[in-house]
Write a structure and sequence with these properties.
The complex is a heterodimer.
Chain A: H1 6-19, E1 25-29, E2 39-43, H2 56-61, E3 91-103, E4 137-150, H3 151-158, E5 183-186, E6 190-191, E7 196-204, E8 207-215, H4 221-226, E9 234-237, E10 247-249, H5 254-270
Antiparallel strand pairs in A: 1-2, 3-4, 5-7, 6-7, 7-8
Chain B: E1 2-7, E2 10-16, H1 21-38, H2 46-51, H3 62-77, H4 94-111, E3 117-121, E4 124-128, E5 139-142, E6 149-153, E7 159-164, E8 173-174, E9 179-180, E10 185-192, H5 195-207, H6 212-218, E11 223-228, E12 232-235
Antiparallel strand pairs in B: 1-2, 2-3, 3-4, 4-7, 5-6, 7-10, 8-9, 10-11, 11-12
Helix pairs in contact in B: 1-4, 3-4, 4-5, 5-6
The chains are: A alpha+beta, B alpha+beta.
């Protein structure tokens, strides 16, 4: 488990302020097909009530356009979560273990599996711009972290089945006494110095069932892939396959639309 | 039996194992009816009349109401990246209509008693069961840069849809800016629990640009495969498993 950037916490904070008074925790289950489920907890500091947009349509309007020329963010720095000061919440330690691998150094990356854009691009700084890094990994090791989370969230997490299958979005969980109001809530857009971070929390059945990144520091997928938030995305060069397939999926063929449209026009022109 | 017709501006492929010409005809008729109602290219279609303000919401057909409710849901589920209005202000629900109509067609084929089929409109595909050869249906993902396919997927009953701009150009726009979605993303293929799910997300994630594949990774029910201008692809963590031929049970039914 890893700590969450305090600015991310701030964004989540504004979200849940709408739905809940007092301290709380946000649980987000990472999807994984082959590795144990990683549960991320975010401790929320002191809360302020806000009347932020909580309607579905407003969340789209509150969405700021992505800044494509913003430098790529590095891995978010971690900070010890702070206790909520507005409401006493019973805290318990939670220990989780995660497998973390480092990408291969540039010298060992094969041609074709490394991003080709951005190496010489003056608009981007740092090495983790452009596209995702190589799929091959090295230095895989277990990282065990312990953090303090509200007891209710820990109870909810312990009820989840740590199976290697994908975790469904809705989990059975303890409903906190204060409860959440059902709906989807959009947090404020917070600039972490490298771009905008904004999250959206989904509450159903009175519980937080999902937390979605609405905005991440821009500059491409690699900024997410390089952070260990998205270690399982895989990159590879495309290659033509020779295979007998039943059919093909690809973008629609515009010539058919032209024929259709022209045909319809001519049919009307006949009258 | 298999046949292809151009309807709704795209090739519609219907392959029903054990089906006859009359069965296929019923499916094509379904797509024609959808086209008559939802085609923005047809002056007399219900959607065109709506766009000309000739009929108000109280006069909409049940299908139209249903589709617009689904559009509303799609906008919510895609953080506003799915849009029902074009930059010119025209109401266009086609981002949902395609997958919705294929899903309905698949249900029609099932109601006719068939368990093995392929129903497709313009590269959005719903399959069930096995092919005529008794093998799992396989879908090739088109190479956006030329001929050939770059991936073979075994959907196993999932729906599949691909969104891209390598043919039409900048027809996909970002509803938040009303400008063409600018990114190096050339093609993104989405697999969902059915073709309706895959289709409604496909256009939206394309408009998300580089973050589209991240959105798919975060979504528990979706898998994706994105191709970028430099020839690199990025796939979600569960996508690889879908490229492996499943074990065939010839005696399934």
């Amino acid at each position: 488990m890893r700590y969450i950037n305090p600015l991310l916490i701030k964004s989540i904070c504004s979200v849940v302020a709408i739905a809940l008074f007092g301290g709380f925790a946000v649980a987000h289950s990472a999807k994984s097909a082959a590795t144990p489920v990683t549960v991320q907890h975010a401790e929320i500091p002191a809360m302020t009530e806000q009347t932020a947009a909580n309607s579905q349509s407003a969340s789209a309007e509150a969405y700021a356009p992505e800044q494509s020329d913003t430098p790529i963010s590095a891995v978010a720095k971690t900070e010890t979560p702070r206790q909520s000061s507005s409401t006493r919440v019973e805290m318990v330690p939670v220990t989780t273990t995660q497998t973390v691998c480092d990408p291969l150094p540039a010298s060992q990356q094969k041609a074709g599996t490394v991003r080709t854009r951005g190496d010489d691009d003056d608009d981007y700084e740092g090495s983790d711009d452009g596209y995702a890094p190589v799929t091959a990994q090295s230095n895989c090791h277990q990282v065990t972290t312990t953090t303090m989370v509200p007891k209710t969230a820990a109870d909810a997490a312990s009820q989840q089945t740590p199976a290697p299958q994908q975790v469904p979005a809705v989990q059975p969980a303890v409903v906190t006494p204060s409860g959440f109001k059902n709906g989807t809530y959009t947090g404020s857009a917070v600039n972490n110095g490298h771009g905008i971070v904004q999250v959206q929390a989904v509450i159903s059945g009175g519980k937080i069932t999902d937390v979605v990144f609405l905005q991440i520091p821009s500059g491409g997928t690699s900024s997410m892939i390089n952070t260990r938030a998205m270690p399982l995305l895989k990159q590879q060069a495309i290659a033509i396959q020779s295979a007998n397939v039943s059919g093909v999926s690809g973008a629609s063929d515009t010539s058919a639309a032209f024929i259709e449209s022209l045909g319809a026009a001519l049919t009307q022109a006949k009258a | 039996m298999r046949d292809t017709r151009i309807i709704m501006g795209v090739p519609v492929v219907v392959d029903v194992v054990g089906g006859a010409a009359g069965d296929l005809e019923r499916v094509f008729d379904h797509f024609h009816a959808v086209d008559e109602r939802f085609s923005t290219y047809k002056e007399g279609s219900e959607i065109s009349r709506i766009n000309r303000s000739e009929i108000g919401p109280e006069e909409w057909s049940d299908d139209m109401r249903e589709v617009f409710a689904l559009c509303e849901q799609a906008a919510q589920d895609t953080l506003g990246y799915f849009s029902t209005r074009t930059p010119e202000g025209i109401l266009d629900p086609s981002g949902v209509v395609k997958g919705w109509s294929i899903k309905n067609a698949a249900q029609l084929v099932e109601s006719m008693g068939f368990e093995h089929f392929w129903v497709e409109a313009g590269g959005d595909i719903q399959t069930r069961g096995l092919s005529e050869l008794g093998t799992p249906w396989s879908v090739g993902i088109r190479n956006p840069f030329g001929a050939g396919i770059v991936k073979v997927v075994y959907p196993e009953g999932r729906g599949i849809a691909t969104s891209g701009n390598y043919i039409r150009g900048d027809h996909i726009f970002d509803p938040h800016t009303m400008q063409p979605a600018i990114s190096d993303l050339v093609s993104i293929t989405v697999l969902g629990s059915d073709v309706y799910e895959a289709d409604r997300f496909a256009t939206a994630v394309f408009a998300m640009g580089d973050r589209g594949i991240v959105f798919l990774e975060q979504h528990p029910d979706l898998e994706g495969y994105a191709i970028y201008r430099n020839g690199q692809s990025v796939m979600t963590s569960g996508f690889d498993a879908l490229t492996m031929p499943p074990a065939t049970t010839l005696c399934a039914t």
